[in-house]
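Marked as duplicate of an earlier ticket. Keeping the data here for the record.
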Amino acid sequence: MKKYLVAAFVALLGVFNATAQENKTIEVFECEANKLTVEGSTLICTGFGHLVFPKMDYSNYTGINFEAANFEKLDEKATSAVCSLKIEYTKNGETVKTSMGFYRTGKKKIEFKSFKDEKQGVISIDPSTITKVSIGMGKNKKVDINNIVLVAKK
């Protein structure tokens, strides 16, 4: 009897493990460069451009993480904004656009955790309504983007 209980428990753990969602890594080369140049993981922008993530179902994810490093202004008139994370989603049949801008040079780990966060003052997005995700850049800037990860629901 004890062997059957242990076997059933192990099988149950296997089912939980098989259905667990995993984080998804997105490589820069999988994204669409819109009005910017991509060299490896480096984004070079002379106008206003976007690195558009592949179209996918975001329902099983709670947020997006990535790293921005080696920020460089290509023109002294360029602002200090490194990049922005832009998300488009539908709400009540309307397209809503939201973005978060990131400043500060050096290596910066970006963590966007706002999917389905109902706290007051925090953007709350139903991930199943997301239609477009991109990293935006302003004029005359260069930055390395690495470790783009969609964070899975636990």
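See parent ticket for discussion. The first strand starts at residue 24 and ends at 26.
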